[in-house]
Design a protein that fits this description.
This protein is of the alpha/beta class. The chain has an eight-stranded mixed β-sheet. 30% of the residues are buried. Strand 7 and strand 8 form a beta hairpin. It contains eight helices and eight strands, in the order E-H-H-E-H-H-E-H-H-E-H-E-H-E-E-E. The two termini are 19 Å apart.
Length: 214
C-alpha cells in the first residue's frame, strides 16, 4: 500500500486560483528555497495525478521548460482523471494559466524553454481514469511503488478530499489575498480534522504546512 499525498498552493484567504483559474500570483513569492522544496517533494512520488485542466496546462508547459521542477514533472509517470473523456493531448495547447506563467518568467528574467524534453512522452502515455474516483484511487494506492502525488485543479481536489483517501496534505500558503477565487475545502460533507506534522517557512514569505488526517 502506498500513500496518497496532495500538494496545493493557497492564498492567505484560502483560494487555489483566481475565479478564472489564473495562478500567476503564486510565482511572485516563490524563491530558490521554496522551489527546491517542491522539487524534492515531486521526486518523492512515483506517480503524479491530476484533473483534466491541470493536466492540459502542465502538458503544454513542462515538456519545454528549463526549470528544475520540469525534470520530475516530465520523468515521473502521470495519471489523468476526467469525467468528460480524453482523446489525447495537444502539445501545442497553451492556456491562459500557462501564458500567465511564461509572462511572469519573462518579466522576472527567468529562463523560458523551447526545446522539447526527451521525457515529454510521459504526458502522451498518461493513464486515463473516468470511473468511480474512490475505487480508482484505492486501486492505485494498492499498487507497489513510491507515493502518489495529487496536484489539482480545484474541482478534482475537492472530489479527492471528499473520498477521505488522502494520507498527507501539503498546503503551501503564499502571502497574497485574492478576495475571491477557487476554494478546495468548500462543500465538505463533514468536517475534516487534520494534525499538523511540520511547518517550513521560506524567505519569500511562502509557508509549507504538512498535515496528516487526525
Amino acid at each position: 500500500m502506498r500513500k496518497l499525498m496532495m500538494k496545493m498552493s493557497l492564498s492567505i484567504d484560502g483560494f487555489v486560483g483566481t475565479a478564472d483559474g489564473k495562478v500567476d500570483w503564486i510565482f511572485k513569492s516563490s524563491d530558490e528555497a521554496s522551489r527546491a522544496w517542491l522539487v524534492d517533494l515531486c521526486w518523492s512520488a512515483g506517480l503524479h495525478i491530476m484533473g483534466s485542466r491541470t493536466f492540459h496546462d502542465m502538458a503544454s508547459y513542462w515538456p519545454t521548460s528549463p526549470m528544475p521542477l520540469a525534470a520530475p514533472m516530465n520523468e515521473i509517470p502521470k495519471a489523468l482523471f476526467t469525467r468528460k473523456g480524453f482523446a489525447g493531448f495537444d502539445p501545442t495547447l497553451t492556456t491562459a494559466a500557462v501564458e500567465s506563467t511564461r509572462k511572469y518568467q519573462a518579466e522576472q528574467g527567468l529562463p523560458i524553454g523551447t526545446e522539447l524534453s526527451p521525457a515529454a512522452a510521459t504526458w502522451a502515455g498518461a493513464r486515463v481514469f473516468n470511473g468511480d474516483l474512490a475505487e480508482e484511487i484505492s486501486a492505485l494506492k494498492a499498487e507497489e511503488g513510491k507515493p502518489i502525488l495529487a496536484h489539482g485543479g480545484a474541482g478534482f481536489m475537492r472530489s479527492l478530499i471528499e473520498t477521505g483517501l488522502i494520507d498527507e496534505y501539503h498546503l503551501v500558503t503564499h502571502p497574497a489575498a485574492l478576495g475571491t477565487g477557487l476554494p478546495i475545502f468548500n462543500g465538505l460533507s463533514k468536517p475534516l480534522d487534520l494534525k499538523l506534522v511540520s511547518v517550513k517557512t521560506f524567505p519569500g514569505g511562502v509557508v509549507a504546512h504538512t498535515y496528516h488526517p487526525a
